[in-house]
Amino acid sequence: MDNLLNYSYEEIEQICLNLGEKKFRAKQLFEGIYQGKKISEISNLSKDFKQKLLEKYVDEPIKLHTKLTGKDGTVKYVYELYDGNIIEGVYMSYKYGNTICVSTQVGCRMGCKFCASTLNGLVRNLSAGEILGQVLFVNKDNNGDLKNRKVTNIVLMGSGEPLDNFDNVIKFFELVSSEDGINISQRNISLSTCGLVDKIKEMANLNLQITLTISLHAPNDQIRKQTMPIANKYSIKELISATKYYFEKTKRRIVFEYSLIDGKNDSFECADELANVLKGMVCHVNLIPLNQVKERGMSGTNRKKAYAFMDRLNSHNISATVRRTMGADIEGACGQLRNKIING
Questions:
Q1: Is 295 a known active-site residue?
Q2: How far is 145 from 36, CA to CA, in rounded Å?
């Protein structure tokens, strides 16, 4: 069935008119679903109108499957979709606001060896409304509404490769940043990609204000190919060229994610080589001591060595920080909890 969250306010107006309702009903319907209500729960709509809607549109696009709260306050959500598939996300509180990590696909086909999301392959893409539904669900669950949002920042860094679901992700950006709805600025949204070069360039040409985050995780193609199959299609040189193009078009600083894997990519030699790759770019490196994924047999670098790697980059005038580890006690890494639930 279809999902009303896939549609803009103007499109919902037309849906109401097509069902024989007055135009003002669109505002009641739109506000209801954006408050995280089921269609059947919107009290100011007639029973007859709701019945007509429920013949075409799913009543509850996203519902809670599992919720875990970590010692640091990080909240892990596992959602069940209307077709029984499950996805996951994370809610994190910082001094500057509250960030939600959303999924863009059920599973993933990119095959990165340090990530649990790809262990069961790609099941299907999420619609724009299913991505949006995660934001609205968490906003409501934390006592937020459209005027007093509890979600201030969004990262597309959950299960799935966002640029592998390009059209739905772009529509999501339009919906989530619309003044009619939850109105989250594009400048507060980050998209993390393993590096689909052609799609990075295509997104650059749309002149969005999304922060582009690149999952790099290696200073050269040889190391990158050992953990990221996408490196067999696109070289680091091609990827860096695409990110520079994105910066030229948007003037948005590029963020590089670099998961530090013990004994694989965490030496000073790697730091020096990475600094040379990024030399002259307006960028920041986010160093991440890998959350261990048992099925992958990889361990993260200890934090002492991570900070030494950071200092080495800084000595080359490369902006870098070590990410604070959050949610490790609640299967916080991408796909971990979902995979555990699926496979028992």
A1: no
A2: 9
Residue 108 annotated as catalytic: no
Considering 101, 115, 270, 334, which one is annotated as catalytic? 334
Instruction: Find the catalytic residue in 88, 130, 257, 331.
Output: 88
pLDDT tens readout for residues 233-244:
999 999 999 999
User: How large is the average pLDDT for residues 300-307?
Assistant: 92
State residue 70 phi and psi, 5-degree precision: -80, 170
- Give the chain's largest Cα–Cα span: 68
pLDDT at residue 37, as a whole number: 96
pTM above 0.85, yes or no: yes
Model confidence over 271-282: pLDDT tens digits?
999 999 999 999
How far apart, in whole angstroms, are the C-alpha atoms of residue 82 and residue 60? Answer: 7
Three-class DSSP labels, the chain: CECHHHCCHHHHHHHHHHCCCCCCHHHHHHHHHHCCCCHHHCCCCCHHHHHHHHCCECCCCEEEEEEEECCCCCEEEEEEECCCCEEEEEEEEECCEEEEEECCEEECCCCCCCCCCCCCCEEEECCHHHHHHHHHHHHHHCCCCCCCCCCCEEEECCCCCHHHHHHHHHHHHHHHCCCCCCCCCHHHEEEEECCCHHHHHHHHCCCCCCEEEEECCCCCHHHHHHHCHHHHCCCHHHHHHHHHHHHHHHCCCEEEEEEEECCCCCCHHHHHHHHHHHCCCCEEEEEEECCCEHHHCECECCHHHHHHHHHHHHHCCCCEEECCCCCHHHCCCCCHHHHHHHHC
Q: Is the pLDDT of residue 329 over 80?
A: no
Token duo for residue 261: 């894997």
Q: What distance in Å separates the CA atoms of residue 42 and residue 172, rounded to the nearest whole number?
A: 23
Q: What is the pLDDT of residues 3-45, one digit of tens each?
A: 999 999 999 999 999 999 999 999 999 999 999 999 999 999 9
Quickly count: other Cβ atoms within 10 Å of residue 113's Cβ: 16
